[in-house]
Structure formats: C-alpha cells, structure tokens
Amino acid sequence: MTRLSARLAALFCLIAGTMAPAHAQWVPIKPIKMIVPYAPGGAADLTARLMAEQLALAVGQPFIVENRAGGGGVIGADLLAKAVPDGYTISFGSDPPFTINPHLHSVPYDALKSFAHVSLVANLPLVLVVNPQKMPVKNVAELIALAKANPGKFTIASSGNGSSGHLAAELFKLEAGINLVHVPYKGQAPANTDMISGHVDVTFSSIGPATQHFKSGRLIPLAVSTSSRFSGLSEVPALAETITGFDIGVWLGLTYPAGTPQAAIDRISQESDKILHTPAVMERFKALGYVPVGGKPEVLKNRIESDYKRFGEIIRANNIKGD
C-alpha cells in the first residue's frame, strides 16, 4: 500500500467512525416478560395487553404478560426491581408503587433508584362527580360555596385510603378551603354505587367507569382533575379553570429494572411513542378516559420524581394512613 492510499484509508476509517451511531439499535433475541401488577380483565390490564401486542409487532419478539396483582402494585414492582436487568423483563404499571405507597408503607425497593423508566404511556384524568339529587350544584364554584356554607356536612368518597382519588380529594379540600368528610371504599366501583344511591355526596372517579352514569344522568361530572380539559368530555371544564394551578391525576407507564442497557430502554421508548400516536390506539385510549403521552424516558422519570415529592407532602400534611 502506498503512503497516499494508506492516508486515504485512515481518513475513510475516521469519517466512518464519526458517522456511526453512539450504539446500535437493540434487537431482542427472545420473548420479553411484561409484569402487570393488576388482576386480569380490568381496563389497565387490557391496555397493557394492547401495548404488549403492538410492541411485539414492532420488535419482532412476543411480550408475555404476567399478572402479579397485590399490595397496591408493590408485589409487581418488587418483582421488577429484583429482575435481571437485561431488557427481557419490563413492567406496565401505574403510580401507587412509585409515588404513593412508599410514603404509606415500608416497601422492599427504593422507589427512586431501583428502576429505569421507559415511557409515560398515558395520563388518566380523574373527574369530580356529584349526585344531582343530593348536591344541586351546576359547577365547581357552586359546590365550593355550598360546602363553605355547610362545613363538615358533606362527604367525599374515594377508592381507598392513600389512593389517587383520596389525594385528589385532600388537595381539592385544601385548595378550595372547604371541609368534606372523607369516606374510603375498597375500589371506585362501590364508591360510585353509593354515590348513585345517595350514601355519599362527592367523589373523584376515573372517567371510564363513570361514563355510563353520566349518560344516564345519575351522576354529574363537574370538572376533570388535570390542568386541561379531556377531549372525551370536552364540555366538562378542568378544575384549574376554577382553582388556578390545580392538576392531579393517574398515569400508566413502562418501566425496566435499574441497570437495564440504555439501548433496550431507548428502543422500547421509541416504539412506544410511535404506537401511542397511531389513530387506532389514540381512539381506544380516548374511549377509556386516557390521554396518550409517549416521549423520551425522561418524561416518565421527571413525572415520578415530581409526584413522589408532592404526594409525600400531601400524605404527611393530612396524616394519611394506608389501608
């Protein structure tokens, strides 16, 4: 090889090296287990299976759903934290084991360090609901005025002590300056049933289970809990339109154990983002009361860190105890 050709070869290698990606795209070579910390058949479980199906098509390997319900999501989160961080065990979960339960119980993992977050799949607004027979109010301002005129007379139901609905209720009471008596239930369905029968007066419900009662007129939605309106209930205002800055809700997301290769995290994050912006998935989420999000892994990581701090403050300020 001449001196000139050697120099050209070296230059080519240098150029090729600068054009190469930081790391090659991760391509899984075997099925991926998806831990779902809910019982089979619910809306969140069905959503997890939808994402598993779509991700399998995207990466060319099956996503095997494994339901591990219990402990408010702690059992599933602990399994994930202890899994081998090789990209082949992921979780489709929600906020309680990461941002709420660590403030209520001793959990067997570090909520902020044991996980590598992948994708904020969806935000789930809650909706402030009243029984029109017991609470003759047409909007949030009228509800606040009625509660202020009758402190301690009215009740606000939730799906359980320390639940997202309970935290929303305490935040609403604080920001509105009112006194509503909290009544915890074992799930939102029985809370909504007692709302309809008139045993309790107000609740923050997830949108999906309450929609049928809105259509029948047995329950009335006054506002959604997030900072902007939900497209599936576009005529219902956001609470922030009455109480400036009010914003609380639930999320669904994909999470790996800490130490998972960045290439695997990035691949699943990118594929999830594409899936969440397909018309079919967006329409399905709208029907369930979900707002698809997606974006980079930092979106979910930042949400968890923010909620962990804020929910801890609410729990301590109100001396909330877990069930």
Termini Cα gap: 78 Å
The CATH architecture assignment of the largest domain turns out to be 3-Layer(aba) Sandwich
Range of strand content: 15-25%
* Structural class by SSE content: alpha/beta
CATH class of the largest domain: Alpha Beta
Radius of gyration: 23 Å
CATH topology category name of the largest domain? D-Maltodextrin-Binding Protein, domain 2
- Name of the CATH superfamily of the largest domain: Bordetella uptake gene, domain 1
Query: Can you tell me the residue ranges where pLDDT is under 50 for at least 5 consecutive residues?
Result: 4-22
Would you count the extended β strands for me? 10
Mean residue pLDDT? 92
Shape: globular
Number of domains: 2
The main sheet comes to: 10 strands, mixed
| Strand/helix succession | HEHEHEHEHEHEHEHEEHHEH
Helix count equals 11
Helix fraction? Answer: 40-55%
